[in-house]
Design goal:
With 418 residues, this protein is α/β, with parallel strands linked by helices. About 11% of the residues have low confidence. Helix 3 packs across helix 5. It contains 17 helices and 16 strands.
Length: 418
């Protein structure tokens, strides 16, 4: 049987720490494991590419006999090109590369993980079966392409200010056939696209649980390395240090915990410790906000992959802000590792997980409710184990990347796109 060719377009390399990059990584794994598929991955920037494997005249890197990668170098930082203009130039450069690849590769389907890479594919001329996956709601509102971009194709004149406008135009004029929204997106964000009057298909995230299951074995070594005593109950947050990620809520909960410890003789309260892992523009602000909180109550660690640090956690805290996506990969990864998750309630997570059975819900943007949730779980080892075991069972059954991308490609076939 002739293999179906998948052209995968990503704005970032699949080994970055971000959720959408890891989503691409899992798609590659799925293609690797399916002999009837052939995947061609295109990403930028080239600087992140470390592998020194064979290179063809198109700059191809061969991962295996059915997955090939093409790194695209971004414009050098020392040039006076920044922001929207740099994005636009990268799109044009990518479109020239895609022209060559379309000619040689002749893909059955083009799966873009970012609106800008979808635009590049369209400029390159192959628009018949372009599928766009949306990962994060706040990236859609980012001012990314300058005051205006005039693109004349199929008698279309597009005036674009936001990525949301770009997505609407791409689908309205049939340049993108299907929108796939992974379940990180809040329902309210998905509702924005109803003006397109096209179906939006929801595809759940999926992960490879093995690294996270194995990561729990590193608990003692991690505690020794970071000088955290074994009796501490570690509440871990991992993510980018930006306000919309809920880091302010967590920092305020740490200050409340410090205040509570100062006025309490409870051994349990004194055992609770909050650890934040990550970097980002609001890191100095978080440090200033928590400057008076001692290290036995709160510490910050540099950005690390989830599998490298989750072994430290007794409780995982994520998505406690109303500005962040529904539920991302970190929640699934923590569950796979057997760590109970505390997270802000929203409709998407509420449809999938049950409170105090597979997850512990709190009110979003509420440091008092967050701290109360952490104290309750810290005080009830039986509940922590019950939530963790149920959640892991659900992840292994419903949220592996094989299940997720199996459904994705089944959908593509059902829509006659593959």
């Amino acid at each position: 049987m002739k293999r179906k060719k998948i052209l995968i377009l990503s704005a970032f390399p699949p080994w970055r720490l971000g959720g959408s990059s890891r989503h691409v990584n899992y798609e590659i794994k799925y293609v690797l494991n399916n002999s009837n598929l052939f995947g061609l991955l295109i990403f930028w920037p080239k600087d992140h590419y470390k592998d020194k494997q064979n290179t063809s005249e198109l700059g191809l890197r061969f991962f295996s006999n059915n997955v090939v990668a093409v790194p695209l170098a971004r414009i050098k930082q020392n040039l006076m090109v920044r922001g929207p203009l740099r994005d636009l130039i990268d799109v044009v450069r990518l479109s020239f590369l895609l022209r060559k690849i379309h000619k040689h590769f002749k893909p059955n389907i083009i799966h873009s993980h970012h609106p800008l890479t979808a635009l590049a594919s369209i400029i390159a001329g192959n628009t018949a079966k372009t599928v766009l996956t949306l990962h994060s709601p706040y990236s859609l509102d980012k001012f990314t392409m300058g005051d205006q971009l005039l693109l004349s194709r199929h008698r279309v004149l597009m005036l674009l200010r936001h990525l949301f406008d770009l997505v609407v135009e791409l689908v309205t004029y049939n340049l993108v056939r299907v929108i796939i929204a992974v379940s990180e997106l809040e329902l309210s964000h998905i509702e924005k696209f109803r003006i397109i009057k096209r179906p939006i298909f929801i595809v759940r995230n999926g992960i490879d649980p093995k690294p996270y299951i194995l990561s729990r074995q590193s608990r003692n070594l991690l505690r020794q390395h970071y000088k955290i005593s074994d009796d501490k109950i570690v509440c871990l947050f991992l993510g980018r240090m930006v306000r919309k990620n809920g880091v302010i809520t967590i920092a305020r909960a740490a200050k409340l915990l410090h205040l509570l410890k100062s006025n309490s003789n409870s051994d349990l309260i004194h055992k609770i410790m909050i650890v934040m892992v990550g970097d980002g523009p609001d890191l100095p602000f978080i440090r200033k906000l928590t400057g008076d909180v001692p290290s036995e109550t709160f510490i910050m660690l540099p950005a690390l992959p989830m599998e490298a640090i989750i072994g430290l956690a007794d409780i995982f805290v994520s998505h406690v802000s109303s500005l962040v996506e529904g539920f991302g990969l970190t929640i699934l990864e923590a569950m796979a590792a057997g760590v109970p998750v505390v997270t802000g309630f929203d409709k998407i997570k509420g449809q999938v997980f049950k409170h105090c059975k597979e997850i512990y819900f709190i009110k979003k943007d509420n440091p008092v409710d967050l701290l109360n949730g952490l104290i309750r779980l810290a005080n009830d080892l039986g509940l922590r184990k019950y939530i963790a075991e149920n959640a892991r069972e659900k992840i292994l059954k419903e949220f592996t990347y094989n299940v997720s991308f199996g459904k994705f490609f089944s959908l593509m076939r059902r829509l006659n796109l593959l």
